[in-house]
Hints:
The structure holds 2 protein chains of 2 kinds.
Chain A: H1 2-29, H2 36-61, H3 68-73, H4 80-85, H5 91-112, H6 118-142, H7 172-182, H8 184-196, H9 200-232, H10 243-262, H11 266-270, H12 273-293, H13 308-330, H14 346-378, H15 386-409, H16 417-441, H17 446-471, H18 479-507, E1 509-516, E2 520-523, E3 526-537, E4 542-550, E5 559-560, E6 563-567, E7 572-576, E8 578-580, E9 585-594, E10 600-609, H19 611-629, H20 636-641, H21 651-654, H22 666-672
Antiparallel strand pairs in A: 1-10, 2-3, 3-4, 4-5, 4-6, 6-7, 8-9, 9-10
Chain B: H1 11-36, H2 44-50, H3 68-82, H4 87-98, H5 111-143, H6 152-163, H7 166-181, H8 186-207, H9 224-236, H10 240-253, H11 257-270, H12 273-286, H13 291-304, H14 306-319, H15 326-335
Helix pairs in contact in B: 2-3, 9-10, 10-11, 11-12, 11-13, 12-13, 13-14, 14-15
Amino acid sequence: MTGQVGTWALGAGLIATVAATLLWLRLALHPGTPARAARLATGAGLLCAAVACGALEWALLRHDFGVRFVAENGSRRLGTYHTVTSLWSALDGSLLLWLLILTGYASLLGRLGQRHDQRLHQWAMTLVSVVSLFFFALSHFAANPFDPVHPVPSDGPGPNPLLQEHPAMGLHPPLLYAGYIGLVVPFAYALAGLLAGEPTRSWLRAARRWTLAAWACLTAGIALGAWWSYAVLGWGGYWAWDPVENASLLPWLTATAFLHSVLGRRASARSGWPVALACASFLLVLVGTFLTRSGLVASVHAFTESTLGPMLLGFLLLTAIGTVVLVCWRGTSDPYPPEATPPLSRATALLGNRILLTTITAVVLVGTVLPPVAQALSGTGTAVGPAYFNRTAVPLAIAVLALMGLAVLLPPSGTRPAETARRSVAPAAVGLAVVAVTGLASRPGPMVLAAFGCAGFTLAATAAALARRIRAGGTLRTARLRSALGGSVAHAGIALVAVGIAGSSAYTVATERELPIGQTLAVPGATVRLAAVDRVRTGSGMTVRARLTIAPSAGSPQTLTPELTYHPAQDTTVSVPAVRTGLLRDTYATLLAVSADGRSATIRLAANPMVSLIWAGGALTALGGLLALGTAPLTSRRRRRTAWPGRPLTSRGRHRTAWPGRPLTSRRRRRTAQPGRPTAGTARPVPASASTPGAAE
Amino acid sequence: MIRVRVPKTTALGVGLTGVGLAILLLGAVLGIWRSASPTGDGDPAHRLAAELRCPACQGESVADSRSPIAAAMREAISTRLGRGESPDEVRTYLVQRYGVEVLTMPPARRWGLLLWAVPVLALGAGLLPVLRAGYRSRRAARSASPGRPAGRDDRAGVRGGAAGDVAGQGRRAGSRRHRVFAPPSGSRVWNVGAVAVLALVGAVALATPGPQTPPGPATSPDPVPAQLALARSMEQQGQYEAAAEVYRTVLVERPADDVRLRLAFILIRLGQATEAARLAGEVLAHTPDAPDGLLILGLAQRESDPPAATATLRRFLTRAPDHPAAAEVRRLVDSG
């Protein structure tokens, strides 16, 4: 019964999204027709996705093993929380969550997006609807979780035991999906701008907020995923350059570059970069979906097949070809439009940021895609892992880190070398001092030192820049300052993450030994004593816990209890580490084995310094994105009058069109973006040396 | 707030700042130099194990993995390093023994070359236009008459004529084209769009294999397929021991050759070559020259009896030259 409702909802959703696509397309082609029907169809798609998700949740909670997904992933022994989260613990169910979020974005965009240019909005909605209908079709035909099972089993195996060990399971996948799928909006707007033939900048205004929201979610999702693997996998690592991790990083990199390409002088927003980066972000989302859902990279052995693989690949190719054709046909051809800025300006730093982030994306992409491609084309097995990425992506990332600090020191436009030099003294001193002190006190290696130094430089520069802004006047109520605050917070977060990664990779110490009860195990910075070994029969299986007391503890003794849990349904043993998080270092204990008589246990003990900085930095970065998102247009009217001409394209200007009674018509708006008209910095004389390429021709 | 107040006018202030920065720079250079020189501390075996990939797990290094294969590899690394072999020799040995997949940075040959070419090309593609633009602007500056100050007209000319050149004209042309583009051909675009949308749905529907076509080789109306699927998914998750247990259970229910071969294959992964060889032998007793049986027997024999292994693998190659594993096996046989 529940299964029928679910299948039916998927079918109805498919019909609704087909209708929505056609209706939005009709609107885009024949402007002026009322949009009500199209919005209703989009809303119906969301309703159907919600019903399908609800039906599967219901089946999971009711232990309706006649439904295929429940028979494969449900279990009577599972608690309610993990039963609910098992919706996204396997492919078919996670596709439903994907659909729910995608149609949610579509409905929200259908309602909120109208504030912007109508034609742009209609084209964007058409494209988002096409994506939704593809995933509905995929879920309905190829990966229907509601298929009936005969005979109905009495119990199921439950999800992968690793997914049952941590509460992050409830938060990490939805957040990651929200970020991942949200990148469809800038993609749709970029292509809509091309299709509608609108001035290039108007789509940027519409897309920036959506991208920021998606980016903040993606950042939080990636950080949570790293925290999860740190807290569950038991080897103390948080990032292994695994294909699935890389798949989430790739669109983050291009989305970050996209957000920065919107900043800066108008010319950079006018160039081909934003379109290319917005399209690349979503195409990389599709690449990641294909990689993780086709079974291509998950299997070491080539026998595995997945019915979804070819279809996802087909859709990816279709989208890529369509995008390239559209960009070639109607796009801006010049990625470097002439900018009347001197080489030593923020615009140059932003350009460097784009180039470096794109290069890192290329590095990670080729490292992720090469092994399966080489395997498929030539049959040779290759593996690409940390050794490669540490030698390529990491130095580039350190360069980006340094550029982050440099960008806030450089003036947005114009040359003021004396002032720039004066501003740079303090951050440079901080960076150099950090390198000198850590380099002389310990020997972490040049790469780690560079990361420390660049992070110190960037943190100091960011703090100084923010202080300058606050001194220059303005309270947190002004949108401009809040936008700057968002950027500063995000940059500080990234710098902290860099410090955490560099520090933990350089200074982690670990040891492992079989330990009789009562004896101690020590690494520099942490000493534990094995107090007892407990065997507990839990609901589903057997758990063995080692009780470790942390030795030099003043006051109340603290204990760590790493455990081994045996899951009879999968016949596997999962080791759950115990972590005591400290400000400076984590004490990380893993139980590897217990002797048969229960008198001794094999323990791995590690002191991981600065790991908490990574989580704090990740949270700060996501928070920075949200702060920049919250730059409300409320103060814009007052501030606009005093707006300076070369102002970067940030929040306030974007909302001009949203004001109903504003005298600024779209025609006038368009004229302000006309070429040939001096746009920015006209008050300042422009040195001839910094003039434009092409002048000699 | 960190802020060094530099006296704006005095040369003394600038000089002091310069000296301070120079001292810090010297300290930093010393720190980097000291940090870069090899320290000799740290366990070389651990360092080597950390940069090798465990062939039986996903995303774990040999140093971190708990799988039996990784333990064996760690053992081999310590004994060979202890015997005085260089890390490169140990690496070569492990590649021969476990395949090139254990390296997390493939050698820059054939496909591995792409790993270095793509980043360089990407960086070049990003930087080259910048350098060219800089060169062009410098040439333009030189060709401009030097005596005359850059007046307003001049600037406007540069900006209007060149600044807005490519992008501007493109966009103007674009918006003009857009006016011609949308309304007249609207119905045609709509027709094409509608057909394309329906074609997309149809393509997904048709590309889906029917529910009757079996996904795997073994399907019959009994609980065995479910167990096989379970074992297969465990295998994909890297839980080889658990998967082996399930296959053993299935084998009791249904002693079929394909199950035997799957089990044998996993046993090889787990390093239990003797039992794998026994299973493959059983298969070959039913169907002599079954390619998969030969393959697994050959792989299983590699440890105990290398010449026999080579002979078996050669037989496999003559039986099934187009097998998916044939290329790999050919490499193994050729390498010794």
